[in-house]
Amino acid sequence: MNTFKKITQAAILVAIVAAPSAFAAPVKLTPAIAVPSGTVQNFVLGLSNTAGFPSQNMGTLRLEQIGADTKWTLAANWDNKYNSGNPFVFGLDFAMTSGSLSQSTLPLFDVTGTVAVKSFGSSGVFFNPSNNANRFNDGEKVSWLFKSTNISNFLIKDLHVNAIYNGQSVKFAPMTPVPEPETYAMMAVGLAALVAMRRRQQKA
């Protein structure tokens, strides 16, 4: 094993020790994935449950722990690929492993587009249907808060996209957690430190 390979592996180990949840081994996340504990978790929603429709990035979900609440940010981003059929997000399906949702309303904020919630509960958040002007379209994004909840209370199931496959719907499970930029920065710092240490050893 050459020196560079050893240094790279050591740097990755430093980053994993510093931020283990970001480097969880990828698994086929069907039917649900438990959300790791932590202050921020990101997911790519794109593992198709329909044999005739390819897996791909259809949307992203970001969960943040803000005090006693969780902030959810959901974005649809299939990049105009299927817009000729006017697809839209029907809902985000999840489950709760513990706790419950006690709030009676779900105000949206940081909205890109004209998205509106139809209903919500412990099994998901469901958006306005196709015959409504405020449906959740490609390129749009919304955020909301679930009061008195923890990130680890939830299992993320899938993004339900309607009117996308011969007029039918397809559900897309999370593909893999996405490491935070801070994790990459940690790995870079670790690599730089190990390279510097190696150079000092060679000069000694």
Distance between the termini: 22 Å
Low-confidence stretches: 4-8, 10-31
Shape: globular
Strand content: 35-45%
DSSP E strands, number: 11
- What class, by secondary structure content? alpha+beta
Q: In angstroms, what is the radius of gyration?
A: 20 Å
What number of domains?
2
What's this, in brief?
With 204 residues, this protein is of the alpha+beta class.
Describe the overall structure.
This protein has 204 residues and is α+β, with helices and mostly antiparallel strands. The chain has two domains: 43 residues; 154 residues, no CATH class. Helices cover 19% and strands 38% of the residues. It contains two helices and eleven strands; from the N terminus they run αβββββββββββα. Strands 1, 2, 3, 4, 5, 6, 7, 8, 9, 10 and 11 form an eleven-stranded antiparallel β-sheet that branches. α1 crosses α2. The chain is globular. About 13% of the residues have low confidence.
Indicate the topology.
Layout: H1 3-18, E1 33-34, E2 40-48, E3 59-66, E4 69-76, E5 88-96, E6 109-112, E7 117-121, E8 124-127, E9 141-146, E10 154-165, E11 168-177, H2 181-203
Antiparallel strand pairs: 1-10, 2-3, 2-11, 3-4, 4-9, 5-8, 5-10, 6-9, 7-8, 10-11
Task: List descriptors.
204 residues, alpha+beta, 2 domains, 11 strands
